[in-house]
## 1
Amino acid sequence: MKQRALWSVAVAATLALAGCGSATGNAPSSEAASGKLVVWDWKSSDKTATAYVEKAKADFAKKHPGVAVEFVAQPFDQYYTLLGAAIQAGKGPDVMMFNGGGQLRDRVDALVPLDQYVSSDKQRLTGWDAFTKDGKAFASPVTLQGHPIYFNKDLYKKAGLDPQRPATTWSGFTADCAAIAKATKATCFALGNKEGAGIQFFLSAFGSGILSPREYDDWIAGRRDWSSAHVKQIFQLWKDVEDRGLNSKGGNSTTMFTDAFGIFQSGKATNIIGLMSDIGHWKDFNEFLGPDNVGVMKSPVVNEGTTPSLPFDGGIGYGVAKWTKDPALAADLVRSLTSTEALTAFYTNAGAVVSDTTVKAAEPAVTALVADLKNGKPALHVALSSKTIELMGRLSQQILDGSVTVDAALKQLGESDRS
Amino acid sequence: MPLGDFTPLSARPALAGRAEGAATASRRRRQTAGLSAERLSPFVLIAPAVLVIVLFRLWPLLLGVNFSFTGDGERNGAAVGLDNYAELFADPLFLGALRNVGWLVLLLPVAVAIPGTLATFIYLRVPGHRFYRSVYFFPAVLSPVIVGSIFNLLLSFDGPVNTLLEVVGLGPVDWLGDSDVAIFTVLGVHIWATFGMALVVFLSGFATLDPALLDAARSDGATLPQVIRHVIIPGLSRTIQFVFVTTMIGMLTSMFGLIYVMTSGGPGGSTYLPEYYIWIQQGQMNRPAFASAASTVLFLVMLVVGLAQVSFLRRTGKED
């Protein structure tokens, strides 16, 4: 036994001394040169995205008839794990789908800056910030992702409130919630925080009603003061909402997709902080509540002097891998994937609010959303790194169950954000 | 060729002829060649297996350990010494995951006692024992994802278990959302899902138990607890030890699916186990070298468990 232990120590020590060389391969690997481009995403297998993919393929085929395009749809919950393995191996798809924000910014080392290839799309498309790092765009936005507050107009009517004029202040908003709860037993919010995503939505949805415009802009620019009174107020509000019974019960064990949305859709909660890309959004809710009963609002004013705005960024987008043989060709495919025709099909079939400002919206809720885009600002949580977001998710659960104080959580978040 | 046929040179007649000498030399060569072939053949026979083990097991393992001494992100590929390990043991989340491993070990007797007790009842032929045997084993064939989904529904805050608790006057429990409760909930479900296999092992152990001993105990007027304590437990000691070791390894290595489906490591990281931590670091945080360091630590934990297992079984063998 002793001998074995000694051997183990000897091997580990040798490796510790020799520790060098990553698993990252150096040799580029791509099929572009052989007339084929491979795309990884998690959307192309959805029926609602079929028309979008076909339009994009057709657009690319017109420009490059000799190049085949293969879409490989990965399961979303495994996507970044598989992508991480591909990046480490230095082999993989030529074009890759990304969520905007930390998921992209953490991986820009594996991507080609696209600015020189997509300059003519810069005006037509919006949401570039979420795909930009150090002034360079590493992916083109396909959808916009935002965090509007959806509400159930039917519950407002049942409580004798006017659904056309939801409250614009926090006190008015909670008073409406109390009236609805009394009349219908519906909670104020449907909360799903099992994955720790609930706090991201809360921070971004209510941030513009709490932070001053300057504090908001500073946050997005990376000058984040985690010890400021207003930042503390956001996290304190997160706790107070739970303590006052405004959330649906068991938020920490409720998945956001699809359980929390199910609570809202079944009329058990008045409001939900939803999305505006192609899931958990107005189109999903229309199916259950009816288009006339789906309302959408911005954050109520929590602090005087704030100007609530719609928080939104680029939602998903496509980037080009560093190892691709012909970056210009792959970038052309990205341009086809963000063409007006393809994005129109994505909006029509999936209901996603797309990045193309020339695509016209028709439904009432989405019309309201699109109207808010011009005054919208980037979402607060998208500015954070994946590491800080993950920590924030865990701490948010601990804040709710009382095992961590707001102050202690903010201290840890500040340290993570600075590191 | 038996080695006994070999005749020492010194035993030969001193006046042996040249022809005889040549024949002897030739025989010697054949014998020596045969001996070498005989000595080599075991190595040749095990060579393919050794190659497979070295190429597909040991070499990747060593690469992983080597990788754990390099950096991620901007330091990708650079040697960072023990930095990853220092960060790992400073991370409260990883320490929490190791603490949960401690809980697994502490709850091991429960995980062994349940199938042991039920197997005893089945062996003693309680009414409906065949039915129970099938029912107890059934969860063993279910995927952890299915098991997790079933219990997610049962244990959700407004699910049937809490409804039942409210009916009998007990308040609802947030089985999967309370950080003090969730790890025990997941462990309980894991035990439920896996004890069927241990039960089968126990039943096969019972098959080796001498029924005459039971009959003798009964003739002497032993009660059921006395039969279990003085006949069944000593008779099944090796089976019990085996189930202990295999259940422990199962708990350490196969709870990822349940955690992923039931709690996602939450709430507040309270249900993290090293496997889940490794997956998050590699897949979500994009830190493969750091994840390799965590894997190496998990491997060492497993090594300790494995060596303890070998020593445990060896001692048991000596007792026999």
## 2
Amino acid sequence: MFVNLSKLHLKEECPLEDKGAPKLCMKALPGEGAERSCAFDGARVVLMPIADAAHIVHGPIACAGNSWDNRGARSSGPQLYRRGLTTDLHEMDVVYGGEKKLEKAIVEVAYTHQPKAIFVYASCVSALIGDDIDKACQEAQKEVSVPVIPVNAPGFMGDKNIGNRVSGEVLLQQVIGTAEPEEDHPFAINFIGEYNIAGDLWGILPSLDALGIKLLSSISGDGRFDDIRKAHRAKLNVLVCSKSLTNLVKKMEQKWGMPYIEGSFYGIHDTSETLRMIAQMLGDQSLIERTEKHIAEQEEKTRQIIDPYKKKLAGKRAVLFTGGVKTWSMVTTLKELGIEVLAGGTQNSTPEDFLRMKALMDPEAQIIEDTSAAGFLTLIAEKKPDLIVAGGKTKYLAHKTRTPFLDINHGRSLPYAGYRGMVTFAEAVHRTVFSPVWEKLRQSFPPGGEAR
Amino acid sequence: MSVDTTCCNNSCDNQAISEWIKSEEYKEKNFSREALTINPSKACQPLGAMLCALGIEGCLPFVHGSQGCAAYFRNNLSRHLREPVPTVSDSMTEDAAVFGGQANMIDGLKNAHALYHPAMMAVFTTCMAEVIGDDLKAFITNARNQGAIPEDFPIAFAHTPSFVGSHITGWDNMFKGLLQSLADPRHGKWTNGRLYLVPGFDAYPANLREYRRLVDAMGIPVTILPDASEPMDAPHTGEYELYPGGTPMAELADALNASGFVFMQKYSTQNSFKFVKNVQKINTEVVTMPIGIKNTDNFLMALTEMTGKAVPAELERERGRAVDAATDAHQYIHGRRFALFGDPDLLIGLVGFLLEMGGMPVHIVCTNGNAKFKKEMDALLASSPFGSEGKVYIGKDLWHLHSLLMTEPVDMLIGDSHGKYLAKDAGIPLARVGFPLTDRVNLHRSPIVGYQGAINLISLIANTFIEELDRTCSDERFELLR
């Protein structure tokens, strides 16, 4: 089934007139750049970390060929989700339609890989030539004993955000609530929108284990299909990346009466705050006390470890450009290391995220309005930050301007979430800012010229 | 009949399954796939077109189609090159899919021109624009007529549908587009006395520099077209330069007056080759990518043939050093069995190199290879006793290769970073050659072509074997001398 866009309330969610606010329902300006990915990518980002499912991209080689296994979402078990599965549509398929090929591909993947479920993604081409992937999935379902689930988010629908939301709808309508857990755990929660990039999730789990909180399902980092089916029996949804799945938690609340909170596990303050909220929401007095004790212990321990870094980093200034929860959570996290945010910006987040970021930043700090490469360069030349915190596409641009850069998006190889992640983050920032290479870049050659 | 896909226990990656995946029975099942591709070793046309466009000075690649594609291309090239890659997209969405992409194109050209001040743009398409049949030529003309871009602003264009061919096809189409759109017509018999060298899809800036060095040493005036060596590997000056070099526009304009063209790859330049040789009637040669000693010899001889210039003493001495290096290291490579995957031209070059070292290519997988390639590869394998076990698989993917490695083991895998999982599963080392190389640094900064490239490849392969031996051998076999 096609998720009707108007049902996703995108238009109503575009209330912000602020400069630099994310344009949820606005189209990207043609010719401005190529920073933003598409609805298909957004759908993929949400669903593909479900590790024991097969994910078939129904389209020409472009979509899967350029993207398979390109995100650092980790799995502690099955690695099936990393396989690049595609129908690789050719000219003849475009002319005659690709539905039959897709049906066959679904059966073939069932035979060769024995997945727990099969997700099928539409692409620009399959949608334009009128392939009915829902029908193909139904046909294939007759021959396959695991659920076959169509995901209709072809790239031309728009930005990544839209695809994220479509995925949420798909999970809600076809996965969540289709199985029951064996036991009713009093402290069962779900994470929504935590993708276990570089193993982020594993920095958070030790705290949950210590407190006796059960992670019933993770949507979707290190996720398992069967766990997600039972997600409706959790006592609480914790929305970790609000940009992508706000619609999902709201609808789960309507449907199953599950309360939700929005939190973040980046930085000491946000981690503690989120754990505190979880305990409060679960409402068990002894859990609340345990949580406070745990927070106090962990905070002290973590602050002790990062203190030497903080001493050295104090007073450094950063430019932050990212998406989702990191938009605002990174502002506090950097502050905890004594780093001030000079300018911040986002295009991949919700208006709420954006407003939070604004509230946390120094009133003097600049909101990045022009998010193109050109605008970014102007900003750096003007602000001369000590550090740029952004995603992979900006990395080498930053290097060329002699500015230390920290990758915060999916290209990174280090986990920054939870108390443990904060230590990793502090080490990484320190290593980045104080590398001797920046010095090398600033020396003139041949010697005697002006140092830059 | 229903396929029972339930697993024996909670994990699909359990022992029984992973054993089964290694079996002959599974291989048969795997090879009987008709509709499903698993882990393709190819990307799409516009990615190749983009790399091609980057090689012209001041050129901004312009993707006409969906915006996600362009973001993917930038990511892919950036991760391999560790450089910023400038590209814009005109971000076609639903309405463009219905009404056509002309409005996006005109706005896009206007904005890109105003924002990034390119000297020229290279417009190419994603599959979305191709399915709805957008007419690039008309759109560009209309953009000029509406004043979105200056009347005389140079734009090259190419149709690069991703449902045809692969990234090498796109490179080819864009190259031909550059010549057709921006090269001046020939002045009859007069030539500008320059040799034009066309690298084909090559993501090693060091290879392009090596070509230049070799041709310079021969004393031949040369233009590398397009030359993306600077954009792919720009020096650090403290300023970010959007357009850090490339083939000057004037040399592109003068291309059809060349004294000759030499194409360094065959399969990624098929259309362009025909255009230059048969349509433009220019003295044109195509050589096997000069990987290894013999292929480099043939390349230099082809240059001599075309220009009458002799191979200078310095290159002869260089060749001698490469032969010496091959002699010193032959025992590490001779008789070892290899599996390879990658682009067709790269594979022809590499297999030739392995054969001359006494290495035995066994499995050769080329997702984007055609029948012509298979024929050439079969002939190459048949030319040497070391090729007797070699089998070529065109249109197959890395999951087919997985089965081959499991059922007929080899000693080493040669291919890009995507091969690391296969190598790990098969318990063999991976020598990283090709595109993309995302998990090691600076490999693209050493040439794999020419005599120096032969030495580099010998070192890479032999040392990878020796590293493996050192890591795995028992104490009594752990030697200072290898």
